[in-house]
Specification:
Helix content: 10-25%
Strand order of the largest sheet: 2-3-4-7-6
CATH topology: OB fold (Dihydrolipoamide Acetyltransferase, E2P)
Number of domains: 1
CATH superfamily: Copper binding periplasmic protein CusF
Structural class: mainly beta
Shape: globular
Order of helices and strands: HEEEEEEE
Number of helices: 1
Radius of gyration: 14 Å
CATH architecture: Beta Barrel
Amino acid sequence: MKPTLFAIALALGTAFSCFADDKPGKIELEGIIQKLPSDGLIGIWRVSEKTVIVTDATVIKEDDGPVKLGAKVEVEGSLESDGSIDAKEIETED
């Protein structure tokens, strides 16, 4: 049986996930950076098809590599009513 596009997308989608923390409104997202602001790190990011809001209060940890397009990151923050994530902490991963 040949793998279908749906099966491949489903397999890739499970590699990076977005899940609720045990605290209401808290969320974690593991994924790949797809878009960064053009003038620094503060602003709107796109991580694995999710909108991530990064402010000057967001803690950014680059111990496992620099923040750049294609980098794998873990985002911790709050889920907003529009589905975006207000990032409290972003950490690069290997």
